[in-house]
Amino acid sequence: MGPDVSVLLHEPLVIVRAGEPVPPRGDQILVGVGEFPREAAARLDVTLVPPGSNAGPEFVVSEDPVADAEFLRAAAHDNPQAALVLAQVLRAGGGDVAAALDLESFAYSTLLGGAEFARWLEKRGERPLPPPSTEPVLVERDGARLLITLNRPERRNAYGREVRDALVEALRLAELDDSIERVVLTGAGPSFSAGGDLDEFGTTPDLATAHFVRTRGGAGLLLHRLAERAEVRVQGSCVGAGIELPAFAGRVIAREGTTFRLPEVGMGLIPGAGGTVSIPRRAGRWRTLFLALSGRPLGTTTALEWGLIDAVE
Hints:
It is a single chain. The radius of gyration is 19 Å and the shape is globular. The protein is α/β, with parallel strands linked by helices. It has helices at about 5-10, 40-45, 65-80, 80-90, 95-110, 115-125, 160-175, 205-215, 220-225, 240-245, 275-280, 280-285, 285-295, 300-305; strands spanning about 15, 30-35, 45-50, 60, 135-140, 145-150, 180-185, 230-235, 235-240, 250-255, 260, 300, 310. Helix content is about 40%, strand content about 15%. The protein has two domains: about 5-80, no CATH class; about 105-265 and about 300-310, 2-enoyl-CoA Hydratase, Chain A, domain 1. The protein is built from 14 helices and 13 strands.
């Protein structure tokens, strides 16, 4: 490992305080603290401001911006490879959705082979594969409406292989049938989805195959193509894919008390179900970085303000 890389991994995040010049964008994550002009904040990766400040997508309102900036610095220090890759993908992920999904997946596969994810796997320990399900997704046709329900409430509708494949099959049906005017996606039980099934993590046959499964066998691009017809209703704890996928839909309705969280950086990864593509297109890349790097839950009030969801019912 060269000296420049060693320094970067030792100090992956730099805090820039209001009044200081914004450094030219390099490899490090740049977190602003305090009031910056929007043009300057756009060059940072996220800017933390006190309540009552600018509410543009470049900014995250914080009760204690200095403490939250230090929290982000600690999170980046704990998993510098994942944090830096997250920032790089978010910076480069604009434009075509399919290409951005490929970029996310290439980065995700890279991190699957990294030391940080290996450390997380070792700490978690061996787990048996989840038991099979007879009907992981329910599909019901009601006139011009197709109702799709994630149906593994005993696993909080974790986005494992069986749920993913059955969901993709249902979405392909909707895409091929023009008589389906509305697609409504819900989740059975108290939570819409707890995200990727952790018991399947680390079981991919190889990283290249995993890339093709994520991008060509995943639900994100299908939901994006169906966005004008698609509505997702979420509740409970929406983790990882549990918000990454809904964010592709044209309308997301959350039950009161729903929370949203992206925990992947703490596992040595980045969002891998399309979250670096879907969430920035709703909330902005800056707030997406804060959500993913902090790993903190986001409530419905803030999610609605950010545009991550469209209504609370």
